[in-house]
């Protein structure tokens, strides 16, 4: 049933007799989501709902399908995003950004040296100095928004989608904001005489 | 006012991410746009990372997109297996690539 070409899929879904194609596509998406979401505790009714929402989205966005992949791959990609978006929303529903960040307030800060596993005291000292430097640079270089986003993602483990929603933006824009933040920090590090390679070498074995 | 401070483990992660930052990175939208093609190349046993390096780079950095990519692969692999069962030799993806993927994830 997935032997249709991309063109045939598009024509079938746009035709007044789209029922067969819709039924076929629904079955493919449902089956795909069952595997894609295995082990995530989703119910049969969740799968049905995700498939239905995905089907509507596929039909809405049909014009944006450019045929660079198989139609069913493209549709499955849309379905996976629909489902995971909803699952992330559910998982983080009760966590506010303030609560997440408050868990990591300054009072909780553990001096880096206490948790460093390097055997060599000299190495520990250098790394501790470096960590303090990075902390200072983060505090000095980033805007509150950049710092908040970086902490929520990297320390709080919150998905970009959820941080973005709480900060009144979208995932793509948040990624760009974080990229800008990383570039800023990298620039400052380099001005302070620290090359990216040195930083990687210093922290990769930590 | 208290300010949220990164923990040592987070600083390590940040240091690695800062060091690995490149001037040109694609965002989540562009990654999503290309993800279907990328997944097909990957499943066909081709070097998707070499063919689409910016997509691979984004997937290495972005947890949301990586999660979606892995879920998509799981869905497509299941579909390819079903086609294989239905059509025998007419399988569209090379089955060996599944083994390779399994090794990648170890």
Describe the structure.
Chain A is mainly α and 206 residues long. Chain A folds into two domains: 6-92, RNA polymerase sigma factor, region 2, helix turn helix motif (Rna Polymerase Sigma Factor, Chain: A), CATH 1.10.1740; 98-204, Arc Repressor Mutant, subunit A (Orthogonal Bundle), CATH 1.10.10.10. Chain A has helices at residues 6-14, 19-36, 44-60, 71-92, 97-102, 112-115, 121-141, 144-154, 160-166, 171-191, 196-204. Chain A is elongated and about 70 Å long. Chain B has one domain. Chain B is built from six helices and no strands. Chain B has helices at residues 8-19, 28-43, 48-51, 53-61, 63-87, 96-104. The longest helix of chain B has 25 residues, at 63-87. Chain B is elongated. In chain B, 40% of the residues are buried. The model of chain B is unreliable at 90-106 (pLDDT under 50). Chains A and B meet through α2, α4, α7, α8 and α10 of A and α1, α2 and α5 of B.
Helix-strand string of chain B: HHHHHH
Return the CATH architecture of the largest domain in chain A: Orthogonal Bundle
Distance between the termini of chain A: 52 Å
Radius of gyration of chain A: 24 Å
Strand content of chain A: under 5%
Main beta sheet strand tally, sense and closure of chain B: none
Mean pLDDT of chain A: 90
Number of DSSP strand runs of chain B: 0
Number of helices of chain A: 11
Q: Largest beta sheet of chain A, briefly?
A: none
